[in-house]
Every structure is written in C-alpha cells, then in structure tokens.
Design brief:
By secondary structure, the chain is α/β, with parallel strands linked by helices. It has a single domain, classed as TIM Barrel, CATH 3.20.20. Helix content is 48%, strand content 12%. It contains 12 helices and 8 strands. Strands 4-3-2-1-8-7-6-5 form an 8-stranded parallel sheet. The longest helix is centred in the C-terminal third of the chain and has 19 residues. It is globular, with a radius of gyration of 17 Å.
Length: 267
C-alpha cells in the first residue's frame, strides 16, 4: 500500500528535480461559484505544483478577512463539501495539478472521517490540511485518512516550541506547513524572511520532510526569496484577492496572469 504522504512528497520531489521550490496556490471551492472555480483551476494548473482547495466553513479560525469573505460567497452560492469533492474529481479528470483539501475538524466530523477520506481518495485528492486539529487529537481521524492513502500535513507556528515542532514534523504527512507569522491569513504585511530562514534551518535539523511556508506571501519577490530557503511556497489571500469580483473566463485570466509571474520567480 502507498504511504499516505508519498504522493504528496512526490510533488516536492518533482520540483526539487527542477532545482526550484514547489508553488502551492490556495483557493476557495465555489468562490464565487463552482463553474468559475473549475475554470480557475484549469487556468493555473500549468504553473502550479499543488492546489489547496479550501472547503468553505462558517467558523474558519485560521482565515483572515479575504478568505473568510470568499468562503461566505461560496456558501451563499450553495457550495458544500460534496460540491468541493466534485470540483476535485473534475480537476483530476481534466489532468490538472493535484488537489489537497483545506478544511476544519468540524466538517470532517460531521461528514464522517472515514467517509470523507474515502470520498477524497475517490476524487483524486491527496489529503487535507486541518489547521485546528491539535497534535494530541490527530488520532481521532488520522487512521481513517491513512487507510485511504490520504495525507494530513501539519502546521508549525512561530510560537511552537522546538521539541513540539519536532513531534509535529514526525506526525506530518507529505510536508510540514510552516506558518510564517502569528495571526490569520492575510497579504497585508511583508513576510519576515530572516525569521523564516531561521525557522526552516531549525526544523531541517529535526526532519527530512519537505518544508513549505505560507501566510503573508503575495509577490514574485516574496516567492523568490522564500523559494530560495524552503521546499515550497504557499500563496492564499493574495491569490483570492486577484480574482475577487470576477467570474467565468475573466476570473480565469486574472488567475493565470497573477500566478504566471510567481512561477517564473521560482525558475
């Protein structure tokens, strides 16, 4: 059986073989509607290594105002967990970049961990980031995920003590998500590249897992600087802002125009 994180680790291995960091883009499923989301996924897939597909949720603890608003737009237009699974399935069938879900504990528990893991695998997704699951409670649904070869990458925050960061890295599947700053997602402040470098160096001493950095990254210059340090660069709020208020082909073109220079900055 394939280990849960192996398919996800392969994403980083491919980027490494090209002597660059992996580019990971976050978007909200159904923002502003499912058809637009599908077009955006098609448009950015030639440029990105992995897509984090956010499942909209009414109490998104890690989401800043940009992503929270996108989630509300998606929910208002009828997006559901099943709808997000359908988007992933369609992306897989069209040969797009692999999907990694981003969701919260409550939707998984309500849907059923085993049911969600099986449906995620069937849709072609690689797993899910679940930012509000404590390390101590990971066992409540990790076995169900791993039985379906679904990865659960875990987060290390700026306040995480080194010993706990090592434990998190040991339990993480596919890669470790380094949160670059305190607070919720946002593109409003410059990333602290010096701190990010020290965090990556410190964690590399504790794990061989790929290390991806997210929160507050928005420009090609940010991507180039962090891509020279980490194994992956994650962009969320700034990408959502780039397509906000647009639908259909206009949203897809705005998405492509935003992402293409990010990818170029990594090469």
């Amino acid at each position: 059986m394939i280990a849960a994180g192996d398919r996800l680790a392969a994403v980083f291995a491919r980027a490494r073989s090209e002597k660059r960091a992996a580019l990971i883009i976050y978007l909200v499923a159904g923002d502003p509607d499912a058809a637009t989301t599908a077009l955006v996924i098609d448009a950015i897939s030639p440029y990105v290594d992995l897509i984090e597909l956010g499942i909209p949720y009414g109490d998104p603890l890690a989401d800043g105002p940009t992503i929270a608003a996108a989630g509300q737009r998606a929910l208002a237009n009828g997006m559901t967990l099943d709808g997000a699974l359908s988007l992933a399935r369609g992306a897989r069938d069209r040969g797009n970049a692999p999907i990694l879900f981003f969701t919260y504990v409550n939707p998984i528990v309500q849907y059923g961990a085993a049911r969600f893991a099986a449906a995620s695998r069937e849709a072609g997704a690689l797993g899910a980031i679940v930012p509000d699951v404590p390390l101590e409670e990971l066992a409540t649904f990790a076995p169900a995920f791993r039985a379906e070869q679904q990865a659960i990458p875990l987060l290390v925050a700026p306040t995480t003590p080194p010993e706990r960061a090592a434990r998190i890295a040991a339990e993480s599947d596919g890669f470790v998500y380094i949160v670059s700053r305190l607070g919720v997602t946002s593109a409003g402040r410059e990333p602290d590249v010096a701190w990010i470098r020290s965090a990556v160096v410190g964690l590399r001493e504790k794990t061989t897992q790929p290390l991806a950095v997210g929160f507050g990254i928005s420009t090609p210059a940010h991507v180039a600087a962090i891509g020279a340090i980490a194994d992956g660069v994650i962009i969320g709020s700034a990408f959502v802002d780039a397509t906000a208020g647009l639908t259909g082909p206009a949203a897809a073109e705005a998405a492509r125009a935003y992402v293409a220079p990010l990818r170029a900055a990594l090469t």
